[in-house]
TrEMBL record:
CDD domains: PAAR_4. InterPro entries: Tox-GHH2_domain. Pfam families: Tox-GHH2 (PF15635), Tox-PAAR-like (PF13665). Residues 200-317 form the Tox-GHH2 domain. This is Tox-GHH2 domain-containing protein. Residues 205-226 are annotated as: Disordered. Residues 212-222 have a biased composition (Basic and acidic residues).
Amino acid sequence: MANQVFANGLEISCKAAEGKSVGCFPDVCFTPPQTPATPPGVPIPYPNTGLASDTSNGSRTVKISKKEVMLKDRSYFKTSYGDEAGCAPKKGVITSKIKGKVYFTAWSMNVKFEGQNVDRMSDLTTHNHGSQGNTVPWPYLDEVALAADDHPCVQSGHSKKVNDNCKKPITDDCSEACCKARRCVLVPYSPNSCSGCGGKTPHHPIPVGELSEQRKKGESRGQPRYAKYSEGAAPCICVEGAHHDSRNTVTTELDEHGRAGAKFAQLRNARIPKKLKLGDEYDFSIALDCGAQAISAIMGCDGCDEACTRAQLEKGHEQLGVKPTDKAFKSKQKAKVRRFKKPQLSVLPVATPRPPQ
């Protein structure tokens, strides 16, 4: 058919296409009855569907089958279907809408129409927007979490800072204002989204070794103890210093990277029995506490709210199959900071001036 035009091997989303975004779940909406126990209604998750034939605000000059094409951040499906029963006055939990718009959150990276990336039918979407979503999702916290007034990242004010200063997706926004606002936002180790913010590097608040087997001969790192856990996908914070031993060239003090790692080990060792050997297990909830406390304690990250950091660590590791009730395993993470003497500046003798003749 004439509307079957592809980008990167995937069909481009356009008004002439027969594509659908089916079963986007959950779209949580307040649903009757409204009772004294649940005044706004009962929050019920619904699966939502969007149709390419509802494309709006698409391309103006480039057409497929004489109809507009979906473009990054500009276009949307004007309605979605499936949440009609959520008709209590508040409606959607986040957007206060039902049958709201559908936006794409991914697109082709190298195929553009009118200077904008084109959306493809298998790219990710979010549903039931009143307009473009009013909350910027964090890598390990979604819009539902950040819409709750009692969430620690909302109460601490970090969510508002990010929302006011960053664009979507925040990991791609390396402006000075966004880098400053998102310094407490945890991101995956890979791809590296820290380097654009002043050359910072990703650091695992909970060391990878705490969730890995002990390293065997010939291995650079032990194998993960949990099937879904991955070093690259695990939550990290952007810090100064390329590795745990990198130091300030003037003061010789450890950079943030090393200080955060050492602080974790100090806190962990104070919480677990002294008799534990390398590889022995302890409660993962302790690792969550120590990781969050270490980030809050180090210079440069002292503005990071401990509860907000812990919430991200918990959510991020749950996505990787590690629950707070699971176990961590004592690794070789160093607790002691090796001291270096400050470099001594050589002093040249000063010549005594001759008296005037």
